[in-house]
Design a protein that fits this description.
Elements (H helix, E strand, L loop, with lengths): L12 H6 L4 H5 L9 H12 L5 E7 L4 E9 L7 H15 L12 E7 L8 H17 L2 E9 L2 E4 L5 E2 L44 E2 L18
Parallel strand pairs: 3-4
Antiparallel strand pairs: 1-2, 1-3, 2-7, 4-5, 5-6
Helix pairs in contact: 4-5
Length: about 230
Amino acid sequence: MSLGFATPPPTDAVSRLSRSLEPSEWAALGVPLLRSPREVVGGLHERHLPAPGTAVLAVFGPDERLVASASFVRSTDRPDGWEFRNALLGQLRRIVPHDLRRRTPVRTAALLFCRGGGSDWSEVDGAWMWGLRDACTLHGLRCGAYIVLTPAGWQVLGEGRKGRRPRSPEPSEGAPAELPQVTPTPDRPVSAPRTPVEATRPPHVAGGPAALSPSNGFAPGGRTGHS
């Protein structure tokens, strides 16, 4: 089965706003809850060290392990869920094979976006949520949590769970890097203590156990990793 990138509809303001999800619409999706969001956020932050404007996409297996993750930079001057969807789908195709042949999704994709401003929902967040939902559908995955990382700390939007560390650096502390090349690496624990090997970790893709609890009627099953 082959899926390509379609040309987006006209990018006027009305069309762009229609490709966005409000918090209530996001909550209605029944997104699986992270069992320990602090560990997930901390592990992804340690591996990717995101600067403002950086998105970190993570894929979790049915056994609650982090299969792969990738970080990339995307302009949010004119947030459009269609463009974000294409960017996320492109990253998913680089780091994990699709699960479109499965009757029920067994892997879950979550997104952490590092930005300035407050932790309340914004138009940019709504566009990322729309894009994540669609990208997961087109790759045969379950849509997972959307997390924002701001100067005040992190927050799982739609749930309200949050923390003060890690946080997004202030503009003077760091700037977004260029779009990285993604190379999958073997699984490693998300919350494993730093070692000399970990200190030289690849900056864009990693794997290991993460805390994700299946819910909303999805039963664990299937295989993990690159299959």
